[in-house]
């Protein structure tokens, strides 16, 4: 009898962190609204509102949003959704999304002070 092949692909667990503590502490960015936006917009298998247990989104007390996935998930997709949220709330002109390490994004202000000094020279 031929051996039975089982397709036991180990679920790759990924954890992504979006640190929005700076703008959230300045009352410019609403972390709760962003968390809800991610819940509503993240697609799993081509459908929104299909998160089930494959994707969990949590917000910590320090305004860091953590996305834990057990399916193949792109960090670039999170950056895309973050930028889309910033544009929707008309704060994309003041904030940018920067990768601080392999699994973390951070929202930072554009450095406008250096640009003003360069214009004066």
Helix-strand blueprint:
Elements: E1 14-19, H1 21-25, H2 31-41, E2 43-44, E3 47-48, E4 55-59, E5 64-69, H3 75-88, E6 95-101, E7 104-109, H4 112-120
Parallel strand pairs: 1-7
Antiparallel strand pairs: 1-5, 2-3, 4-5, 6-7
Which series of helices and strands comes N to C?
EHHEEEEHEEH
Q: Please tell me how large the radius of gyration is.
A: 18 Å
Structural class: alpha+beta
Shape: elongated
Low-pLDDT runs of 5+ residues are none
DSSP helical segment count: 4
Please summarize the sheet with the most strands: 5 strands, mixed
Report the mean per-residue pLDDT as an integer. 86
Q: Helix share of residues? A: 25-40%
Give the spatial strand order of the biggest sheet: 4-5-1-7-6
Q: Report how far the terminal alpha carbons are from each other.
A: 82 Å
> How many E strands?
7
* Percent of residues in beta strands: 25-35%
């Amino acid at each position: 009898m031929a051996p039975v092949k089982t397709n036991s692909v180990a679920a790759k667990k990924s954890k992504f962190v979006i640190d929005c503590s700076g703008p959230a502490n300045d009352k410019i960015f609403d972390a709760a609204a962003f968390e809800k936006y991610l819940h509503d917009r993240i697609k799993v298998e081509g459908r929104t509102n299909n998160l089930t247990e494959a994707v969990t989104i949590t917000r910590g007390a320090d305004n860091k949003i953590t996305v834990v996935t057990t399916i193949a998930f792109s960090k670039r997709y999170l950056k895309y959704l973050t930028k889309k949220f910033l544009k929707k709330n008309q704060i994309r002109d003041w904030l940018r999304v920067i990768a601080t390490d392999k699994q973390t994004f951070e929202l930072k202000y554009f450095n406008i002070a250096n640009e003003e000094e360069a214009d004066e020279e």
